[in-house]
Design goal:
alpha+beta; 2 domains; 4-stranded antiparallel sheet; 4-stranded mixed sheet; 4 helices; elongated; OmpA-like; OMP_bac
Length: 203
């Protein structure tokens, strides 16, 4: 998750005002550890002296001040979190992902997923107002057209579970991807349990 700290949460960097009225931008790490970057562009040194720097390391900084180009630096994680503790405390939770699995050729959850589904629903419902994206998948048995239809039915079944728990329909999107995005790559007509799934993305 990218965040801008200062007056608002936005984009992956932390903006603050350093000495003498300038601005400081600090790149925050992604919640899942994936790389991120931000381009800092300034005309503080004048319209004919555009300055631009790329931040691509966690807690790397760029300081912008009147009459001078962007200056790169780095902060310590502990310092950033202490300085902006209220903003970190009030930041929305990072996106979450859950997976439910199905019996071959059906919209029936496996016994393990039947046991897990209430926990998944409960954890998701703690995020009031979150958008929920449900992506249905199949293995490579049956035809592509049939798998498209089955994957969508699986996603809609899970959507109904959320609606029954009071989630607003506008917040839950269900789509089917058939056998296009296999979790485990297989040849055609392979019965692979890990591909028969619905991915639940909460953001």
């Amino acid at each position: 998750m990218l965040a801008v700290l200062g007056l608002a949460l936005l984009l992956g960097a932390c903006a603050a005002k350093p000495q003498r009225g300038g601005t400081k931008v600090t790149l925050l790490p992604q919640a899942d550890g994936t790389p991120s970057a931000v381009i800092v562009r300034s005309t503080a040194a004048g319209p004919q002296a555009v300055s631009e720097q790329r931040l691509d390391e966690p807690y790397q900084t760029a300081a912008i001040g009147p009459g001078r180009p962007i200056a790169l630096g780095a902060d310590k994680a502990e310092q950033v979190h202490q300085a902006y503790e209220p903003l970190f405390a009030n930041a929305p939770p990072p996106p979450a992902k859950f997976v439910l699995y199905f019996r071959a050729g059906t919209t029936q959850l496996t016994p393990e997923s039947q046991q897990a589904v209430q926990r998944v629903l409960a954890e998701t419902l703690t995020r009031s107002g979150a958008e929920i994206v449900l992506i249905g998948h199949t293995d490579t048995t049956s035809s592509g057209e049939a798998n498209d239809a089955l994957s969508l039915r699986r996603a809609r079944l899970v959507r109904d579970l959320f609606l029954q728990r009071g989630v607003a329909p506008a917040l839950v999107e269900a789509t089917g991807r058939g056998e296009r995005e296999l979790a485990v790559k297989t040849a055609d007509n392979v019965d692979e349990p890990r591909n028969r799934r619905v991915e639940i993305l909460v953001r």
